Amino acid sequence: GIVSNTGWNIRQGYERAGIDELISSWVLSFEHGIAKPEREIWEIACEELGVRPERVLMVGNNPRADSGAAELGCTCLILPAVGRGQERGLHAVLGVAGVDQPDSAAAA
Description:
By secondary structure, this protein is an alpha/beta fold. The protein has helices at about 10-15, 30, 40-50, 65-70, 90-95, 105; strands at about 1-5, 25-30, 55-60, 75-80. The radius of gyration is 15 Å and the shape is globular.
């Protein structure tokens, strides 16, 4: 699911990239009149996904805005801002989610 403090519909960008079908829930602040870090926006997302907050892994990039998810009981992984071409740490999501990662040497 996507929770975003956006003032416009961001779905088209995901459609153009061909990944919109991977998103089960879109909770956009302009559609709900609620913005992060309000806990309610995360409650809506959990409800739409049919998942209890303690079973959610929220991946974000803003400790303040995304704090509502942690307050609700979601596990949160906040990725740092980095320069162009630098590793952001998104690969850590698999580890936090308990998904085995292929050994890079074996996968090559």
